[in-house]
């Protein structure tokens, strides 16, 4: 609250001088506290009750610094060690445990003063060190208590019992979690039973909107939840909805009251991808956004929660989790790449469009706020056009006709009567010309849709590569900063050349122009670095090998579903999209997967994929280059820097893919027979890939020479940002050019089409 805000609510009609009142208040009290000044004015009836309440309600969130645990504070015993008890002078009688949150044990308790039952959350011993645990716990209760909203569980008070156990009491919600509610719905649908009113899609969406309202309110107060998932959403007996467990919540932007992670992102035996993880990355892997994996927590905003809401909305619609996978590593890889299950064809197209926008990989492509997301869902429930999927002109007409049925019938009757009096002749004369124009427009529209779809498909693949790089970066940071050195063996580059020590699965590959191993990555040391100095890093990096191999498995299918027939799991299929996964550390240690013999003297710090990202935030795409390791392929690198918990730069990780995969898997347009050739161009107009011409191999070290695209008019149109097709002058047969820009990597798709064949002339 500011003094200027308080002065502004003094009614002008009172004739009071705000500055004079403030000066008198300061003289009498010696205080500059805005709240005391407001109470001073209220006591003199100089502000209304409404203004008094409104100013206090507008107050921003206020959190104390993280406090060390006082000597008398202890952590609660687990359920087995506590039992039914009443402590001396304790306010609450513990009746039994009802659940376990991210940081505490939740009891059903009786308030001995007010004679009501409450939920009492107490810290457990496995929540981390006392100082960190109590600090995080205090922040949770402060945030939850200050979020005063009908769909956020009310907090009754922070309690420190006589034995030092710290906890807080909150409303006891009678009902089920969204997870249990969804399980009930799935069971009814699987049994072929007709869903009752409480479980229909429209009812599920109404519950979802209440969650959105609560999160929109929290974002307005500057708070993000960071752990939205069905088990943290409660549905009460009377359809009331509560957002629970704000243990990972934080204020948006930099915060002085920050909490150091208490445990690493390493699940125990009873944990998995659906359990809340505390560590360098916080959240629940199956429901977190890619942002939580790739960005520092102080850069997260409401769009991260919005992504989690989109995953929950997907599950409410389809009754299946949006992110597939059984293991933590598998789910993390899908999350990092922004991959979801495909929406079933039976799902409403409007809802599918809302989910797609809410869970867009790029934050700027999502809704501007959770309120805007909720507004689009409400449009769907009102049978209105949603902004995520605007109506076609025909759909708008049909909606209007359905809304105004009486007017529609009158207009139709009039049109029929008038048409019978003579319009037939005029329509007949114009029909041929209109039909020809319509046919041309339709064919051109179909072409542009196909080109746009092809470009979007390529772009989606590259965005998935960005997500894979972010997932690899997160796993690498975890291994280097919190991992335990592995005692598993590893191989240096020289050992790949030694017949006695090379890996058993090392074999020739035409694709790689040499021998590679799918089981063993290769590690290299820069000139002058002894192995003993590099050994701790190498031993930690061996734990990332399963994730790196999984990336290659998932990349093998250009159709995008990540699956490969085990019978076809050959070396060539595994590398249809990816060529290399690489890690280069600040000390010059590097690792390539698949493993192969790396040229002597290789130093990652001199390579473009390292220098373009070193010390910089975010994923970056490099320029095409000839592989220096030996494949002789034209490669495109994608990499990102990695930093430790203190923000210190520790290296670069990334992937390299061959542009040949674009030609073989993504540049084909069989549905448009009139296509003569397709191209992938860089921003300078040089040809990187063309569908009908094989690029001769370029030896490592040779200068890369690219052929310029022959039609300058197309380059000019691309730079102008147009999306229309153009007709090329002086070509035989006459050619049309259609194009699409690929945003993530600054490349362009150009399609040349035989105009006469396209228009059936």
Overview in brief:
The chain is 37% helix and 17% strand.
- Which sheet architecture does the biggest sheet show? 8 strands, mixed
| Total number of strands | 26
Measured as a percent range, the helix fraction is: 25-40%
Broad shape: globular
Contiguous uncertain segments of 5+ residues: 65-75, 77-88, 256-270, 556-575
Strand content: 15-25%
Our count of helices gives 24
Give the termini separation. 73 Å
Q: Would you kindly provide a written description of the structure presented here, covering whatever features stand out?
A:
The structure is a single chain. The chain has 761 residues and is an alpha+beta fold. It has 24 helices and 26 strands. Strand 18 and strand 19 (634-643) form a beta hairpin. Helix 11 (328-337) packs across helix 16 and helix 12 packs antiparallel against helix 13 (370-381). Mean pLDDT is 78; it is low at 65-75, 77-88, 256-270 and 556-575.
Features:
6-stranded antiparallel beta sheet, alpha+beta, 8-stranded mixed beta sheet, globular, 761 residues, 24 helices
Map the helices and strands:
Layout: H1 3-8, H2 18-29, H3 34-43, H4 49-57, H5 79-82, E1 92-100, E2 104-111, E3 116-123, H6 130-146, E4 155-160, E5 166-171, E6 175-177, H7 178-190, H8 201-220, E7 223-224, E8 233-236, E9 241-243, E10 250-251, H9 290-294, H10 302-318, H11 328-337, H12 349-358, H13 370-381, H14 393-403, H15 405-419, H16 423-482, E11 491-492, H17 493-497, E12 507-509, E13 514-516, E14 522-524, H18 531-541, H19 545-554, H20 571-574, E15 578-585, E16 590-593, H21 608-611, E17 619-621, E18 625-626, E19 634-643, E20 649-658, H22 660-666, E21 675-681, E22 686-690, E23 707-708, H23 712-720, E24 726-728, E25 735-742, E26 747-754, H24 755-758
Parallel strand pairs: 11-14
Antiparallel strand pairs: 1-2, 2-3, 3-5, 4-5, 6-8, 7-10, 8-9, 12-13, 14-16, 15-16, 15-20, 17-19, 18-19, 19-20, 21-22, 21-26, 22-23, 24-25, 25-26
